[in-house]
Amino acid sequence: MTSATIDPADTDVHGPASLTAVRPAASPQRLLADLVPPRHFTDARFDTYRANPAFPSQGATLARLREVADAVAAPPRRGLFARKTPTAPAVYLDGGFGVGKTHLLASLAHAVGVEHTAYGTFVEYTNLVGALGFQNTVAALAAKKLVCIDEFELDDAGDTTLMSRLLRELTDRGVALAATSNTLPEALGEGRFAAEDFLREIQALAARFEVLRVDGDDFRHRAVVTDSRPLPADVVEAYAAARPDATCDRFGDLLDHLATVHPSRYGALLDGVGLVALTDVAPVTRVEVALRLVVLVDRLYDNDVPVLLAGGGEDALFTPEMLRGGYRKKYFRALSRLGALAEDGRALASAA
Predict the structure, then answer these.
(1) Do 276 and 339 have their domain in common?
(2) What is the C-alpha to C-alpha distance for residues 177 and 32, in angstroms, rounded to an integer?
(3) What is the total count of domains within the chain?
């Protein structure tokens, strides 16, 4: 696969004053180029993962992934008895929110070599198929030694079937696989809840995956983002105005704008942005709006973009019905990540 380039028109080094003013473009080459460990995990390595001795599965998973990295990075065997397409490792990291699964996945990618690895979220891969077509996506990814899928999602039957077919094509070509997903907080005592769902949904691939359990507590220690104290709107606006790389938008306006931008371009939406400020934050009541917000939060988190929130912080961002529904894993992940970014933003504003 040839190296991908990013069109200069896709970037804005200064950052816009408002996200709603941005009409991002993301070419197929840009989508391929973005399949690398996110900025938040640029420095993630096996040596920087701190396994909690209170949860032995963390240390065991770390040790096993070191072995996987060595196996994937090793040059292929040559000779009369070498298999034409050796069976490559396939591992699935099962655990709750904030236990370090993404850190471990990014560490695996760095150990194998980012030039030999495609790293993205489930949504990024389905978007890639939409942009390139299925066979072109297979060809592009088959040039890699390892494909990492963070946050494998099981809530859309069509997308899950598509991803299962894609992974089968890749494993048939000797590409190693590594995936993560989340067990809901209330299901952590129920054994391999998410793993069973994952293996059932990928069906023909299930026997190829080795499940690695990662137990532990959410290191971000966030319940819901709006439990943190919101900042006054004038403080949020003034701090954002003082930073050339900050944006400031009304929450409702941004949600409306997201409806006009394909989720595959949310990463490009944040080009050049170092801080996102939102005023009039209020509960989201429509599922399609909430799902777009989840994708944006993932891109904010991947790029280490702090946020400042002003508005109704005493209310839940998502409705109780949403948090009990089929997309609840996505919502809980978004709450955990947005809570961490909001605390980062609060710390910056407090220090100013």
Answers:
(1) yes
(2) 17
(3) 2
